[in-house]
Amino acid sequence: MFKNVKIRTKLIFLFLFVFLAFIITLEVYIIPSVMTTIENQVKNKLKNIVQVAVSVCENEYQLQQSGKKSKQQAQDAAKEIIRNLRYNLADYIWINDFQPKMVMHPYKKELEGQDLSNYKDPTGFKLFVAMVDIVKKKGEGFVKYQWEKPNTKKLYPKMSYVVSFKPWGWILGTGIYIDDLVEYQNKIKMTIRLITGLILLITMLLILTITLSLARRLSQVEKMADLLSHFDLSKTDDFKAVSSDEIGKVTSAFVTMSKNIKDVIKQIKDVTSSILDAAKELTSASSEIANVSEQIALAISDVAKGSSEQANSIEKSSEKLSALSNSVQDIYEKMKEAYSSVQAVYQRINNGQELIISQEQNMNSVKEIWQDVQNMMTRFSEMSNEIVKISSFITNLSKEINLLALNASIEASRAGEAGKGFMVVANEIRKLSEQTSTSAKQIGTLLKDIYENIQTISNQFEVFNRILETQDDITKQTKDVYLQILQFSKDLLEMINNVTESTKIASNSISVISQEITNIASIAQETAAATQQTAASTQEQTATAQTIASTMKNLETLAQQMAKKVEIFKI
């Protein structure tokens, strides 16, 4: 399905797959996990804040038990301390009992002392009754309802944490408005998505740059292969390898191959031209020999003297002409072999082209992009490590704060009565420090899960290694084909050398024939009469010369055909 798809399209599909996988992981797992962690941290914060108020009550209750204060004095002191406690500027702690009746409220003093059994929010929910129920069942818990924000007259959804102080029958509680929590969570979501979007944008730019570079270089290889498939070697010198990677090596191999083929074609053209010229000269010479032989046949009837010498000379000429015929036949056979060798070279070039096409198809799966994706995953891992370091720093800081709180408690105990209130606050600081350390460990665990998910995504790209191995095998096969082409070129040069030697032999034979014909002419001048046997020999000589002329004509035709075959190459 994907064999005919361009590499640029494949890389785009790959990026979209990684993009969608990461977005799904982010939206389905990472962001919900972070939101859950934030909500748990808020709940722990509410618990810790209420525990501060509980510690105040415990401290006053101890003063009551020791007899230093009456119950009413201790309760009044605790209510005033808690009434003035604030966090986040306007958030507060209130006190009601199990009736339920409002014991103390920092902003709605009109509710103090009132029975809250029938107090409902705008939805009809009896919130204080629900608080009493959950405290009776579990001792503590969270309740959601609607309540008026301080300094405003509007009602907002609110989540409160309540816990009982059994010695006085009190229920202490504080809460957070859900819209504030949602706004904080949305800010965190937006931050995560902005960072993710920036990383994905950078990745997209990197992939686009690499894709365009690969497309340009593969297009150059494709153009060169097209030129070679059409026997056009005139423009291959314009191509140059601009890189040392696999594509650059293929381009360099193409350039080298085209240069070698150009050299071979030039040599073949030169040899073919020489053979063609020699064949034309031999044809002309053979025709002249035939004409001379005919003239000799006409004159033999008048030649008598020297007939025996003439017969011997003609016999020798016949032998030389036979040798010439054999040499010409050798040339013909060698040229046939040379033609077959050229065809084999052409076939091997086609095989090399098919392997290069296979190389190109496998190169579509080359995963240079894998390195970029791996860098992206490494960056995520580094970011997780940085956050882990921050979490570790928070843990160490919490330990330091815990130690300082412990020292403060010791100093407060040394101060006696005057330092008891400070000791309570120091104890609460120490508890808050422990809670902070626990939260930091939870964040570290969550980051470990995120790192494992990133590693899982990275493992999905191992298939690219197998594709690279396939690419190496195809490259080796391509090198073997090139070696075969060189070997065939060497064989072609050897055969052309043999043709040259055969042509030389033919030339020497023609020289001998010319000398013998001269002897025949000399002897013919001395011959007075011709015999029937001499006439018959002369006729045989004429037929042989005509055969030689015909053979030379065939050789000329073959040389012309070979020249036309070579002309299809443009150099």
From TrEMBL:
GO terms for molecular function: transmembrane signaling receptor activity. Residues 212-266 form the HAMP domain. Keywords: Cell membrane, Membrane, Transducer, Transmembrane, Transmembrane helix. InterPro entries: Chemotax_Me-accpt_rcpt, Double_Cache_2, HAMP_dom, MCPsignal_dom, sCache_2. The chain crosses the membrane at residues 12-31, 194-215. PROSITE patterns: CHEMOTAXIS_TRANSDUC_2, HAMP. It is found in: Cell membrane. One of its GO terms (cellular component) is plasma membrane. The keyword Transmembrane applies. Residues 285-549 form the Methyl-accepting transducer domain. Pfam families: dCache_2, MCPsignal. GO terms for biological process: chemotaxis; signal transduction. PANTHER family: LYSOZYME-LIKE PROTEIN-RELATED, METHYL-ACCEPTING CHEMOTAXIS PROTEIN MCPB. Belongs to the methyl-accepting chemotaxis (MCP) protein family. This is Methyl-accepting chemotaxis protein. It comes from Caldicellulosiruptor owensensis. The lineage of its organism: Bacteria, Bacillati, Bacillota, Bacillota incertae sedis, Caldicellulosiruptorales.
